[in-house]
Amino acid sequence: MAKDLMTPLQRLTAYSQGKPIDRLPCVPIVGNTAARVIGVKVSELPNSGKLLAQAQIAAYRRFGYDIIRIFTDLYGQAEAMGSVVYYPEDETAYLAKPALDDISQIDSLKPADPYKDGHLPIHLEAMKIAVDEVGNEVAVTGALTGPFTNASFLIGAENLARLVAKNPEAVHRLCRLSLETCLNYAKAIIDIGCTPSLTDPMSSATIISPQKFKEFSFSYLQQLIDYIHARGKSVTLHICGKTAKVWEQMADAGADCISIDNAASLTEAKNKVGNRLRLMGNVKPSETMLQGTPADIRLAVLSGVREAYDNPKGYIVASGCSLPTETPFSNIDAMLDAVREIGYPITAEKLSRLEQRWSQ
User: Fold this and answer.
1) Taking the model in full, what pTM does it have?
2) Exposed (0-12), middle (13-18) or buried (19+): which is 343, by Cβ within 10 Å?
3) Residue limits of the Uroporphyrinogen decarboxylase (URO-D) domain (predicted)?
């Protein structure tokens, strides 16, 4: 099996500059699977910056992928603003109670201080440890929840949906407060030496219309991205589900790379916005990465590469979203091994030969 000839930072830098590389960048989006790498329970990670860093560094070293993402769940910012998050013993956390029962309580909300509130200081500690230990060879990113999604965690998704229709100014107030927290956290992440990685699932066209995206999500994302750019960092933006109807808005907001969910088409994204930004995705996290075989993973990687390797702004092989915790290590290995065997440069003829061999 082919071996890596470059570090992740060398690879991503050369790729961005149009210089020779050994293979395409590859990011199986490892979240709480990292707990399995070091043999601890998922609930232990959010409570220890050292353990969280240890898990993500160990996962990076075990699999050899190209970006570390310090992440446990999407609720950190909302929790720091007063929402209640439940941490099961060995499963991913979930929102137990929004910060507000009713929008009339909004004056009680304040932007979070990432150095003091909730679990954010623990995540920052983990980022600092990771940067110090492996930041000279791999990019370390910190997960940052988008303003509209964070707003939904402050009031509850159903309440937010009602407010969108009946009280849009209240939604904007929630988004403005969320943006302040996002900007505070983005500053802290960048000050440590990391890059914010944006996730905004509630902005999906599966949930809100493109018109509502424009009204309630776009300007806040744009302001956040503008700040990150002003600090010299590029931005990868992930929105779950069907996003084709908002790809152009995601590009207009300033995203340098969009992470494509498996519900969307890489070919369509390439044709629509591939001349404006890099694409990343979109192997199915559950159906393929969790439940498939290594052979399934190799063919899924090949399919994505065939669709997007010639994207004008580049392509990163990745899962369509964060991997389920119990994703087999052999399947993550298969994703990286497939990318290594495909190598670079890539031709249609080479992909056809590999498909014939891998399909047998």
Assistant:
1) 0.97
2) middle
3) 8-341
